[in-house]
Amino acid sequence: MITRDWRAEIAPIDAAVAAAGRERIDNLTKPQGSLGKIETLAVRLCAIAGGIPAHAYERRTILIGAADHGVAEDGVSAYPPEVTAQMVGGFLGEFAAINAFARAVRAEVYVADFGVRAKLAAHPRLIDVHCGYGTANLARRAAIPRHDLGYVLAAGIAAYDEAAERAPFDVLALGEMGIANTTAAAAIVAAFTGKPVRAVVGRGTGIDDARLAVKIAAVEKALARIEDFTWEQIASEAGGYEIVGLAGAILSAARARIPVVLDGYIVAAAALIAGAIAPQALDYCVAAHRSQEPGHALALEALGLEPLFDLDLRLGEASGAALALPLVEAAARMVREMHTFAEAGVATKEPDPT
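The structure assignment produced for this chain is given below.
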């Protein structure tokens, strides 16, 4: 699977279609640009759809990738590793934040177990794509053996396919759960962007200065082993299972021409991997928000994505991506349902006096 030619399988978006979408939006009955980022989002949806979207993206699925990280044993998080499995239980029990948000935005929630360290019982909302009981400690050795990366990427493809089979969707929102996964994400973002470690390492779950120092040291140790800065070496040294798995889901969505709404820092790290594998996959991505993690803004900059909003979120779980789903619908309805000045018989803007 790692040798699969994703660059050939994912169609690049058509710039002419995007330009036609922009032209129609500019002629809708409103001042040009007055709907701000919704207009930009609508242009992207047109480009992805190959024209005006045929629907309003009302079939919505949220896929949460879950996995544990060996570096948690060094105390880089304020919470113990067993919280990963416990929170997955909360998602499946439908009493977590993402469940409340999903009900608010009419989305289905599925959890993909890419590498939780506890054995999880079967559940209708659980997708079993287990790759291992947590990664190795990235501060000491490669988090994922390089020869396993294709297997993990394939797990992401399988998770996408399974979610689509259980509840066909028009738009996919991605999130994650994994104690210590901001450490892995920081290492990935630092490796891809070349930014200083201290610029990409944040306090995650709200760690104190002592834990922050340990976290920075862990990221530095992982980066010290990276020599060729290929996506394979970066993903192998930093992990984690859910990050690489979500990269596979992004590639699958792009191949199917499905918009992918990205949540926060960890999902942005997954997008960096997907973009390294097939750069055109990023054309199908929408950044929901800018998180409080300092490296997230740097990751979005590297991805070339502008977030739709900034609500000081840092929870993960796809909470920010869920909140963006109604904006996707609004953008699609705008370009589908609004009339142009000509169609509505409304006078256009008068020329500025000279």
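Interim note for the steering committee: Residues 319-337 form the longest helix (19 residues). Residues 92 and 125 are 6 Å apart (CA to CA).
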